Amino acid sequence: MTDRLRILHLSDTHLYGDGRLHYGLVDTLAGLDRVLVRAGELEAVDLVVASGDLSDDGSAASYRLLRERLEPWAAARGAVVAYAMGNHDLPGPFEEVLGARETVLPVRGFRVVTVDTTVARSGYGLIGAERLDRLREVLATPSANGTIVVLHHPPVPPTTGLFETLRLVDPAPLLDVCSQGDVRLILGGHYHHALATSAGGRDIPVVVAPAVANTTDVLWPPPRERAERGAGFAMVELSADGTVRAHVVRAPAADDGETVYDLSAEAIARIAADAGWKGAS
User: Fold this and answer.
1) Structural domain that includes position 258
2) Which parts of the sequence belong to the Calcineurin-like phosphoesterase domain (predicted)?
3) Does residue 256 belong to any structural domain of this protein?
């Protein structure tokens, strides 16, 4: 047991089982391989977190590609792997290849709890009473060094307009449960850009990993939304006293910065109508 946990946090790999390109442009499997080569420079890793949208087509083949890369990489370093469901993931193939959608993993005196925030055929996230009760029951017994909650939809507001109706709906109950327990850190993805902030009654640190598939341009003027080529990950250290240090690392390629998509306000409205939370203002 140790009083410090070293985490490789990656998200939004958006893999395809048949080798297709994301948006017809991006080889996401090559991006994942590049991320793992770059992350191989880390001095040590105890935990590998993959926080959702692991597949884009939801195929078992895509999850096998992910597992075949992450698990040997982690095993070579004595690390544990935690997978979380994202809105692009499909429950059946996910569970067939990666295991249960919600898990509790002990890692060096810390506890890692994955929470499924997905809603079938929707882009937004929601945590119902059953999932909250399950998390509350887990947290009722403290772990030695504290708990890390891993989910896809971050319990903090989005930075860009595309995610306004694709956010986690009503995160307050989740944050209340986490604040009442021994949660030291919340890890998420979904936004396709790095973010470090805090939330809840205890100001629990929240780290959102950059995506492997592409990078949201947080400076692009609204109401448009742009993503560019670029892959990265977060390296996070968590101490038993609750101290968190997070760094964002890019895994560069020659075409980084090229536009993957540039959405108009009308295109964003169509996405909201198709997959967004209908109760959004």
Assistant:
1) 4-275
2) 5-193
3) yes
Q: Note the pTM of the prediction, 2 decimals.
A: 0.97
Instruction: Quote the tokens at residue 231.
Output: 């892959």
- Amino acid making up residue 135: L
In which region does residue 109 sit, left (phi positive, over 0), alpha (psi from -120 to 50) or beta (all else)? Answer: left
Tell me which H or E stretch contains 112. strand 110-114
CATH number of the domain bearing residue 169: 3.60.21.10
Over residues 166-190, the pLDDT tens digits come to 999 999 999 999 999 999 999 999 9
166, two tokens: 């694709």
Per-residue pLDDT, 280: 58
Q: What is the mean pLDDT of residues 96-124?
A: 97
Residue 269 resides in a domain: yes
DSSP run (H or E) holding 205: strand 204-208
Mean pLDDT within 231-240 = 97
- Pairing status of strand 232-239 against strand 244-250: antiparallel
Tokens of 101: 């959608």
State yes or no: cis peptide before 223, omega within 30 of 0.
yes
Per the structure, the count of domains in the chain is 1
Helix axes 28-39, 60-75, angle to 10 degrees: 10
Asked if residue 157 is part of any domain, the answer here is yes
Mean pLDDT of 103-107: 98
Q: How large is the greatest C-alpha to C-alpha distance in the chain, in angstroms? A: 53
